[in-house]
């Protein structure tokens, strides 16, 4: 009994000692060094002096006051950071209840011409044609991924499948550290969802790219700048996500770094299960003798796809700092994947035949089809970069080498049976085999030379080689030998595409007072070849193309962070060889073909933007732009009689769509409700008019308006917990011979950071009302269709992350700004 008593006493004494040790407290007030006003909602952190590991975090209140309670006595580093201020590091000794003297933090410093203006850097800002989101200054996003950070970037949206759009448009290029990523779409989704947000410095959004970022398609650019300002780091994290579909996504990450060398490795895997459904109603027409149109056939097709996918992402990164002005980096990554898709479809078709007296004969056919598809693919890349700074004023040279390869193999077996047997169609038992290998290599050089604080020249040169080989074999089942060995030579082909591109740009920036003038020109020289081996429609085409794309921008910025800009640009582009070829790419029921009569398209654009950035409250931006397009290339789906298939079929073909004019008004904003809530809103109204002289001899005019709304809300509560919701609404819109229906989406989630962020948990619900149904219509002169696409988009996800290691930041200020407690 005595032993039990002594044991209880010992436990009580230990617990009491621990409790006393852990009940020290640190408090103080954070103030602005210029006017001694309190700094509200700043991020305060305590780090151990011994190894700079994180101990505890809090935020200042409306009066700039902060308190750390429940901590051990000892020596610490106090770190203060706030949007628009330089980070402050301060050595402190804590014993009991410790109260500091007032702490002063300095605003960021910006230079305009020869005048230095002390100004708080906002979370959002503009620089010429770039709207910047300073991710490293946003504490709300540090536990997320790059996809999460992109949701906060002005005008950027990421849907449930990881597709990135800019101001509602799918035409967007992703750049990494001022270089085009060249990552294929499905690999890009994996990359963006795996790159942690705390590895980013900022995201630059360029909706109307100037010479430096211009591309042939006229797409907007999202430039992701990573942050490597780490002094010492030895860190490992791992975790996994799982959702109600049965998807699993484990990962592990390792980072080691010192002042000269850093190494990181990342590996992840994913298992995906998805189901989608399609229903298409279509009607085709021909001209009749009375000047009207008769129905040729109607179709009702339903299809269900079930997909199981397995994949992963593996990457290695090595950075070496040669000296204070030079560094080199090497990055390699590989993304293997395998997928299994099973499809079941049904089609009811009615064909109409008219005799000379106008009487109609109707023939109906019905089939069921099943398809089993197996795909194996990979994507790998290797890049090397060298940067040389000639001074610390912006004079620098960057050299890059980039290469990637993408092999893929696909085998699909399809059985189609008609009930009862059809006179117009045959039963099918086919095997489709597709082997594709592509690679690209790019060399680039970028040079920037400031001649003064108000004049800067930047130029660059990029040489790119691309090759793609696609071997597609379609085989019919031979019942006599019970193997697939009869070649469907109409649908089989061997296609090779080669492209060599030399692109250069020159940009001159001149600042006078609060004005900035940007003059730029982009030049493209390109050689392409397109070769197709096919028994019916072989092709061997080459093309050489040269284009100049000038642009000019005038912007005005005030000290109080109002920004105004006016920009004009002109661009021209040639159609790709694949859109000009006479090769017909047949499926079982349709085909696509190029148009050898296509000519280059021209676009003139002018836009005006007004914005106001707030140090703590966010930003608001209003933009108006107008585009005039001539010979815009649009693909049109229509109906035609095909001699090879012996019936009327629908086909798609590109045309120069005459002219089009579009105007758009965009309003977006961000509201920062202190340090604990963030609201993003984005809306556009787009009005377009299309005109075309079509092949039926008629002139068509199509006019349409489309409205899009997006929003997201993040809020933090109880210090370690946060909640978010995001929504998007796209109202019906019209384009040339096509229109789309409403699209709705809603996501909600909760997250928690526990045990000093060693453990993070997340729970989210995607599309809780299962709204994600997409409808579209084609209204060509001879072909009408209504398509409904439904996917299983409602699911619950759970994520868990564990972190171990220590991180030492560049805390030079900590050694020079020690403070004494009173």
Q: Supply Rg.
A: 31 Å
Could you report the average pLDDT, rounded to the nearest whole number? 82
Q: What is the CATH class name of the domain at 111-229?
A: Mainly Beta
The overall strand count is 49
- Identify the CATH architecture of the domain at 111-229: Beta Complex
Helix content: under 10%
Tell me the CATH superfamily of the domain at 111-229.
TonB-dependent receptor, plug domain
Form type: globular
CATH fold naming of the domain at 111-229? Ferric Hydroxamate Uptake Protein, Chain A, domain 1
Main beta sheet, described? 22 strands, antiparallel, barrel
Oligomer: single chain
Walkthrough of the structure:
It is a single chain. With 822 residues, this protein is mainly beta. Among the domains are: 104 residues, Immunoglobulin-like (Sandwich); 119 residues, TonB-dependent receptor, plug domain (Ferric Hydroxamate Uptake Protein, Chain A, domain 1, Beta Complex). 6% of the residues lie in helices and 66% in strands. It is built from 5 helices and 49 strands. It has a 22-stranded antiparallel β-barrel. Strand 9 and strand 10 form a beta hairpin. It is globular, with a radius of gyration of 31 Å. The relative contact order is 0.11. The N terminus and C terminus are likely disordered.
Break the fold down into its secondary structure elements and pairings.
Layout: H1 2-21, E1 24-32, E2 43-48, E3 54-59, E4 65-71, E5 74-81, E6 88-94, E7 97-99, E8 103-105, E9 109-112, E10 115-118, E11 124-127, E12 130-133, H2 146-152, E13 156-158, E14 164-166, E15 172-176, E16 179-180, H3 185-194, E17 200-206, E18 220-226, E19 232-243, E20 251-257, E21 261-287, E22 293-323, E23 326-354, E24 360-389, E25 396-418, E26 428-452, E27 455-478, E28 483-487, E29 493-512, E30 515-533, E31 539-557, E32 562-573, H4 577-580, E33 584-586, E34 590-593, E35 601-614, E36 618-630, E37 633-642, E38 647-656, E39 659-672, E40 677-693, E41 699-717, E42 721-730, E43 733-735, E44 738-740, E45 743-754, E46 759-766, E47 773-780, E48 783-791, E49 795-808, H5 812-816
Parallel strand pairs: 1-7, 1-8, 15-18, 34-38
Antiparallel strand pairs: 1-4, 2-3, 2-5, 5-6, 9-10, 11-12, 12-17, 13-14, 15-16, 17-18, 19-20, 19-49, 20-21, 21-22, 21-48, 22-23, 23-24, 24-25, 25-26, 26-27, 27-28, 27-29, 29-30, 30-31, 31-32, 32-35, 33-34, 35-36, 36-39, 37-38, 39-40, 40-41, 41-42, 42-45, 43-44, 44-47, 45-46, 46-49, 47-48
